[in-house]
Design goal:
The chain is mainly beta and 143 residues long. The protein has a domain of 87 residues. 13% of the residues lie in helices and 35% in strands. The chain has a five-stranded antiparallel β-sheet with strand order 3-2-1-4-5.
Length: 143
């Protein structure tokens, strides 16, 4: 029996397809890093029930969301630090290299995790020295 190729209708014509595979960071070179805005994480992903952290990264050629698989070291640093995992914080993860693992184990990959507090813009009340007209003028001009 000869196999025939079936034609599958495409209801998504003109739309962009999501990548078929996992797109994430592959740690290869010491000093390699990812720096972006923390978007959150998912737990219990994949067969090893790992965390996957998502960062929104802005680069010269555009913006994208980057996924970072959690490792024992990354997860420990995230849990033990004062980083509270609030969305909107700047987060950086840097690969520092690896050290020999226990007998029969893969080498342990070492990382640095750094963050900054999110920038919060507060609408400050005008000082008492400003006149009512100056306050109104400032609002109209977007100040």
């Amino acid at each position: 029996m000869k196999a025939t190729k079936a034609t599958i209708p495409n209801p998504f014509k003109g739309m962009h397809d999501a990548p078929s595979g996992y797109s994430g960071v592959t740690w290869v070179t010491e000093g390699q890093y990812v720096l972006g805005t923390y978007m959150g994480y998912r737990s219990n992903v994949g067969p090893n029930m790992q965390r996957v952290y998502t960062l929104h990264v802005e680069e010269e050629d555009g913006e994208s969301d980057v996924n970072v698989w959690g490792t024992t070291v990354i997860d420990s640093l995230m849990d033990a630090s004062e980083f509270k995992g609030r969305e909107g914080q700047k987060l950086g993860i840097q690969y520092l290299g690896s050290r020999k693992g226990k007998k029969g184990m893969n080498p342990t990959k070492l990382f640095r995790v750094a963050w900054s507090e999110p920038v919060i813009i507060k609408d400050t009340p005008p000082t008492s020295k400003q006149s009512r007209t100056e306050r109104k003028r400032g609002k109209r001009q977007g100040k």
